[in-house]
Write a structure and sequence with these properties.
With about 200 residues, the protein is α+β, with helices and mostly antiparallel strands. It has one domain. Helices cover about 35% and strands about 25% of the residues. The protein contains four helices and nine strands, in the order αβββββαββββαα. Strands 1, 2, 3, 6, 7, 8 and 9 form a seven-stranded mixed sheet that branches. A two-stranded antiparallel sheet has the order 4-5. Strand 6 (about 105-110) and strand 7 (about 115-120) form a beta hairpin. Helix 3 (about 160-185) packs antiparallel against helix 4. About 35% of the residues are buried.
Amino acid sequence: MTTFTKPSTAVALLTVLFVSGASAQQRQTGQSFAISYGIVDRIDMVKVGNDGQPTGVATGAVVGGLAGSYNSSHGHQVRDAAAGALAGALLTAAIKSHKNKDNMAHQYTVNLVGGGTISVVVEQGDIDKGDCVAVEQGPSANVRKVTPVHCTSASDPAVQTADVTVKQQEEAADCHTAKEAALKATTESQIDVAVKKVRIFCES
C-alpha cells in the first residue's frame, strides 16, 4: 500500500552500512521483539485521515507499524500512547510518497498459532488471506509474510533453535530502524527513499 528504482552502487553501499550499523547498535542495547505467528483470516481496507491516523479499525489494533495497543483472547494490553502519533506520521509519509489518492491502509486479522487473534494495520499490501505471517512487536511493530513452517505448530523444535531466533530478532530490528528513518524524513525525495527502504526491510 510500487515501482522500485535501482539505486547506484554508492547509494546501495551507504544504505547497507547505515542500516547494519544502526541495527547492531539496537541489539547492543538489548532491544528485543515479541514475535508471534499466525494465518491471515481477513483483510480489510481502512481509510487514513489527513493526520495519518486510520479510522474504522478493529478495537485495539496494532496501527501503522508502530505499536499502539492490541486485543487478543489473552487480554487487552495498552502500549505507549505516543506511538500512535509516530504511527500516523509513517502512514502519512507512505501515502504522500506513493501518491495514494484514496488514503487507504491494510488491516490484517491474524489467527495466532498459539491461540487468539490480532489485528494489524500497515501500509503494505503484499499479504494475502491464508498466508502465514510473523507479527513483530517491540519498540515498533510489523507484519510480514513467512514460510508456512512457522504456522504448523508453536512448539515445533525447528523454529525454536537459537540461530532461527537470532535471525528473527535481526529482521525485526532492521525493520524498526527503517521505520524510524522514515519518520525522520522531511523532503519528498527523502520520504520516497525511506518508504521504499521500509518495504525492503519489513516485507517478506
